[in-house]
Amino acid sequence: MCGIVGYNGKNKAVNILLDxxxxxxYRGYDSAGIAIRDKEIEIFKAKGKLVNxxxxxxxKELNGTCGIGHTRWATxxxxxxxxxxxxxxxxxxxxxxxxxxxxxxxxxxDKLKKHKYKFYSDTDTEVLTNLIDYYYKKxxxxxxxxxxxxxxxxxxxxxxxxxxxxHPDEIWVAxxxxxxxxxxxxxxxxxxxxxxxxxxxxxxxxxxxxxxxACLKKDKVIxxxxxxxxxxxxxxxxxxxxxxxxxxxxEHFMIKEINEQPEVIKKTINNYIYKNKIDIYxxxxxxxxxxxxxxxxxxxxxxxxxxxxxxxxVLEDLTRIxxxxxxxxxxxxxxxxxxxxxxVIIISQSGETADSLAALREAKSQGIKTLAIINVVGSxxxxxxxxxxxxxxxxxxxxxxTKAFSTQLIxxxxxxxxxxxxxxxxxxxxxxxxxxxxxxxxxxxKYILDNLTRGIQKIASKFSHTKDAFYIGRNLxxxxxxxxxLKLKEVSYIHxxxxxxxxxxxxxxxxxxxxxxxxxxxxxxxxxEKTISNxxxxxxRGAYIIGIAAENIDVSKISDFALTIPKTNxxxxxxxxxxxxxxxxxxxxxDRGLDVDKPRNLAKSVxxx
Length: 609
Ligand code: AGP
Fold this sequence. Notes:
Elements: E1 3-9, H1 13-23, E2 31-37, E3 41-47, H2 50-57, E4 66-72, E5 87-88, E6 94-102, H3 105-114, H4 125-139, H5 143-153, E7 156-164, E8 171-176, E9 181-185, E10 188-192, E11 204-207, E12 212-216, E13 221-224, E14 230-231, E15 236-237, H6 253-259, H7 261-272, E16 273-274, E17 277-278, H8 287-292, E18 295-300, H9 302-319, E19 323-327, H10 328-331, E20 342-348, H11 354-365, E21 369-374, H12 380-384, E22 387-390, H13 403-422, H14 428-438, H15 441-463, E23 468-473, H16 476-492, E24 495-500, E25 517-522, H17 528-539, E26 544-550, E27 561-565, H18 573-591
Parallel strand pairs: 18-19, 18-20, 20-21, 21-22, 23-24, 23-25, 25-26, 26-27
Antiparallel strand pairs: 1-4, 1-10, 2-3, 2-4, 5-6, 6-7, 7-8, 8-12, 9-10, 9-11, 11-15, 12-13, 13-14, 16-17
Helix pairs in contact: 3-4, 4-5, 7-13, 7-15, 9-13, 9-16, 13-14, 15-18, 16-18
The protein binds 2-deoxy-2-amino glucitol-6-phosphate.
The site of 2-deoxy-2-amino glucitol-6-phosphate has 15 residues, from helix 9.
């Protein structure tokens, strides 16, 4: 996804902008640019990585203390210098960067061409630049009027930062559905698509809401609503510190975040459990409401969807409430029929995933209560859901989620146990036992990291050139195999599939041949023998088997490489079996010499549909 940054203050803007863009690289991009305002506005853009932009300005004397910057993840128009942001209006009076998609840009281009505007790029963004210019010149009511008229006229998503030629020392911003955060300190004001880009400068931030605008001056920020009235915004404090957004000695963010899992699982548990008592009620949801839900819908994308698949097994088994799990991009367009007494749970690390945000809005439009399980405080989904349960994973920089995934699982276990308690589906004794075992998970996760990492690192090179991989399991082992498969695919580019072990014989087993890699997850006592039989079936067809099993289940005879994880309550195994799956994906990718933190074509947060 695109990233935008801005600075207006006492210091030179260029280094602050470049540093901020570096912190946003994890969002995925294919070109970059900055605009620095000194006497004039100077624009510099380059295709490819940030280093190309840095080379372009290396010999420039850029003393301007106001500027905006952008990393572009192409949606309209190929990756090129011409399509890179910032974009300018025809006479250069408006300069703009944008994250999002303008859905009605064709009609807007036609309108503007009738008013003699010309377009030099293939982007939708250029429309915004000229539309602001059009309103600014036509109504002569200043920047906020031009921006508000543009917002009213535009359909789609945007976080924009704008420089007006005849408004020096001001950066104007506006947003709808794309993320933006605004910071301030004694040296000036800052804007960014995400926290890591400004955390080095300040923890004091404003969250700008949809269809709001703001003017960043050197010493203050003025906010406006869509009518152009000034509005007050509360200055908030970010709880993260910058080290959390740095590698701290690890080679990559992904391996750092895999190793942070014990700590952040513990933090998340401690945030909701105190002295063997669960408290999720600070979210605002009540026991009465939890008791009243007749149906639960879990809606998410990617790995967050896989958390939902795991959660379905746990929630239904413990609470006896029917649970449906849906992919957000399907849910939002299939005109879902929702139970008025239902609860829609949206899971999202970023809280900005466009499809998940749209699913939330679909649920709300039907008057259904919504609960969000989110990692980024103040994100769009967090702000629009009725209730929010935050994961305490801290900033997750690697595109492939690991620690956020694990903390989302923990929040679901806690939710399921609490609902089971208030619906009297478990005894007080069960409740305590589940909580006590849950509190062991961080230590068992640490045990796995300390004892299995080396072996996985060694075996990984054997598979780094495999063409296909199959992940199989039953029940929760099937659910977590989905995540194992996606982890491998998204960072190593090796094709993989997750399959319900019992489903293999209905077709897919025909793909198994000599040395096909099959990773079998075997932790669920009620079905493990059947999974072992399925492993025997693929073994007899030549498969190479990596077995990941609970310590009370022996898969060594059937596995070419067996990994044992500590015993735990059946519901909690995904939190343990996911760790070897993450390590397998990571070390195979490293062996393939790929950029494991920033995989090709991927973005950390998919804020466009
Ligand atoms: C997972 O490793 C991927 N980065 C991706 O599937 C991700 O889980 C998905 O895009 C959802 O993102 P969200 O949790 O921020 O909504």
